[in-house]
Amino acid sequence: MFPQLEQRIGKRLTSMAKWLAYCGGLSLTLIAVLTVISIVGRAFVGFGLSPVKGDFELVEIGAAVAIFSFLPWCQLNRGHVNVDILVRHFPARLQKFFEVLGDIAIAIIAIIIMWRLWMGMGERVTWFSQETRDLLGFGYKPFSIETTFILGMPTWYGYALGFIGALMFAVVSVYTVWRDSNEWLAMGNSNG
User: Fold this and answer.
1) Is the whole model's pTM more than 0.85, yes or no?
2) What's the structural domain count of the chain?
3) 8 A C-beta contact, residue 120 and residue 139
4) Of 4, 75, 102, 115, whose CB count within 10 A is highest?
5) Please, what is the Cα angle at 73 between 72 and 74, to 5 degrees?
6) How many CA atoms lie within 13 A of 75 on its CB side?
7) Phi-psi region of 137 (alpha: psi -120 to 50; beta: other; left: phi over 0)
8) Secondary structure tally for the chain: helices H, strands E
9) 81-138 pLDDT, tens per residue?
């Protein structure tokens, strides 16, 4: 269905997913550097250095952001683990059909993850009127902002940054259903 449109959208999503993966890599690099600095600070406390305050909180958030940033690129490139012991012996068209079924399952999971991150963020954000919160699906307004223990950073920051990757993962997952369905349909047309 609409293969030219699918290809144009695919190019844009590929570019966006690639840049998001670069951001995930940058996040991992920064938390690695932060960890080294913190360990060196702990090792040389006697020389006036100290560990980075709240390092483990920053590592937790940075790792989550990185993971969600890599998911869209992984899905676009069929990088998720699959078990094809039996399926690889089927005809190519049937293999592609099972690939589409796998894409549908991943799309459903990606949408659920995105939705739950959105809801989790909404439970931690204290903004907006109740009407706006209801419209956004945020639920009831919390009485206070939930913060991290050491840095006092609002926990919704991590949810918001993770949501960007989760949203892109859901969009890419729906796109891969479309892409692989087009490939499956094309296989049927060439055989018939």
Assistant:
1) yes
2) 1
3) no
4) 75
5) 90
6) 36
7) left
8) 5, 0
9) 777 778 788 888 988 899 999 999 999 999 999 999 999 898 888 888 888 888 888 8
